[in-house]
Amino acid sequence: MIDLTVATNQNEQLALRVFKAMEDGNLLSVMRELCTDDFIWSNSGLPTLFGQEGFRKLAAEGGFRKYIPILAEQTHFSADLINIASARNIVFTERIDHHWSEDGRDLMTPHIAGVVEIRDGKISELRDFYDTSCYEQEPSRVIPEYTLAAHLERTSMS
């Protein structure tokens, strides 16, 4: 789970807030607050999203499930932050993302090196780099402590 208190400056805090919003399931509602209107979001092996409009269009179409069939079962998300560093307007993250099913299976776990660019106090670019073989991975066995109910309980406490 993302811990906002590990941020050492405002840019790191902003970058972590995006991942926290993914965990909390409210990314769509906070995008205008966190990202510039013309932000760019690129992920390995997926079409690049351009701007708030591009993000909202993809969300309306079911998100990245459209390109990664295993995500059709995803009900919640979490991320393990391994490292974070920043210089000027760039934040680097190393993390492992988890895409959970309601019954607690981890559907996809990419190990990601991410770059977040900040402009005028908002995210202008988010680039995630990882091995796309995760799109074809076998889901984990059921992990009871990561069921949807447990995830919602954890996020409501933070």
Topology:
Blueprint: H1 10-24, H2 27-34, E1 35-43, E2 49-50, H3 51-60, E3 74-87, E4 90-101, E5 106-108, E6 111-119, E7 122-129, H4 148-157
Parallel strand pairs: 1-7
Antiparallel strand pairs: 1-2, 3-4, 4-5, 4-6, 6-7
How would you describe the overall organization of this protein?
The protein has 158 residues and is of the alpha+beta class. The chain has one domain: Nuclear Transport Factor 2, Chain: A (Roll), CATH 3.10.450.50. The protein is built from four helices and seven strands, in the order H-H-E-E-H-E-E-E-E-E-H. The chain has helices at 10-24, 27-34, 51-60, 148-157, and strands spanning 35-43, 49-50, 74-87, 90-101, 106-108, 111-119, 122-129. Strands 1, 2, 3, 4, 5, 6 and 7 form a seven-stranded mixed β-sheet that branches. The model has no long low-confidence stretch (mean pLDDT 92).
General form: globular
User: Describe the biggest sheet?
Assistant: 7 strands, mixed
Total tally of structural domains = 1
Provide the CATH architecture: Roll
Total helices: the number is: 4
Low-confidence stretches: none
Topology-level CATH name: Nuclear Transport Factor 2, Chain: A
Mean pLDDT: 92
Q: At the first level of CATH, what is the class?
A: Alpha Beta
Radius of gyration: 15 Å
Instruction: Report, as a whole number of angstroms, the end-to-end distance.
Output: 10 Å
The helicity comes to 25-40%
Total count of strands? 7
Q: Report the structural category.
A: alpha+beta
Proportion of strand residues? 35-45%
Order of helices and strands: HHEEHEEEEEH
